[in-house]
Amino acid sequence: MNAVVAIDGPAGSGKSSVAHALADALGYSLLDTGAMYRALTVEALARGLDPSDEGALGQLARSLDLVLAPRVLVNGHDVDDLLRSDAVNAAVSQVASHREVRTAMVDRQRQWAARQPVGTVAEGRDTTTVVFPEATLKVYLTASLEERQRRRGDDESAESVARRDEVDATREVAPLRAATGACVVDTTDVAVADVVKEIMTCLATRTSS
Ligand code: DC
After folding, report:
1. What is the pLDDT along the chain (209 residues), one digit of tens a residue?
2. What pTM does this model have?
3. What is the rounded distance in angstroms from the CA atom of residue 100 to the CA atom of residue 57?
4. Which atom of ligand 1 is nearest to the CA of 96?
């Protein structure tokens, strides 16, 4: 398997900034798995699908033509600016809770990582537990609820962050939790560069043992 550093954690734990900075530092490609679920949700809403309709969403997840970089395209349409809309924030957890949807997305994520030339930093809930259980390094980021709500700031209400935590942590398929053996980093009041340093130390320890 190509080198994979998988980063998990709840909304606002710093996954996105840390994953970007870490991918830069290591020269790895960045896989934002949340963006994939968000892109699927944009398309599902555009087609008027019900976020509870597992069959229709699973079919869509399997058939979608999805491009992740440099912008997110669904069936050739640039949906990057729509990924973080209120409508998507409100529906994405439910869309992502279905087994059929997750199976299709996990397949895509593994195939994507296998194609990368150097390695992958994969960011998102379940990347350490389900998608890449054999990752070179698994990282679980945490932060206090107050700090996480503050970080989401303009993008999302405090209630929405707390509600997504609840849905993501209690869902039946792949609930959010720290993987066994993960390098756990509390990012409350810690600068991104220092979090990256801590992860590099974990990586050095894991790959030398
Ligand atoms: O990381 P994010 O906020 O962009 O993720 C959006 C939603 O997608 C989140 O509420 C849960 C879901 N998600 C998931 O279930 N599994 C992933 N690997 C990534 C995201």
Report:
1. 689 999 998 888 999 999 999 999 999 999 999 999 999 999 999 999 999 999 999 999 999 999 998 999 999 999 999 999 999 999 998 999 999 999 999 999 999 999 999 999 999 888 998 999 999 999 999 898 889 888 887 777 888 888 877 777 776 666 677 778 889 999 999 999 999 999 999 999 877 76
2. 0.88
3. 8
4. 15
- Containing structural domain, residue 63: 3-208
> What's the 3 CA to ligand 1 centre distance in angstroms?
22
Determine contact, residues 135/128, Cβ cutoff 8 Å.
yes
- The answer, yes or no, to whether any atom of ligand 1 lies below 6 A from the CB of 34, is yes
Nearest to 198 by CA among 209, 182, 179: 182
Q: Is 164 in the pocket of ligand 1 (CB under 6 A)?
A: yes
Return d(Cα 34, Cα 6) in angstroms, integer.
13
- Residue 36 CA to ligand 1 centre (angstroms): 8
- Answer yes or no: is the C-beta of 8 below 6 A from any ligand 1 atom: no
The CATH number linked to 52 is 3.40.50.300
Query: Can you tell me the distance from the alpha carbon of 91 to that of 40, in angstroms, rounded to the nearest whole number?
Result: 11
Ligand 1: atom nearest CA of 131 is 18
- Cβ of 132 closer than 6 Å to ligand 1, yes or no, is no
In the structure encoding, which two tokens stand for residue 125, read together?
């809930």
Domain count across the chain? 1
Residue 44 structure tokens:
């599902």
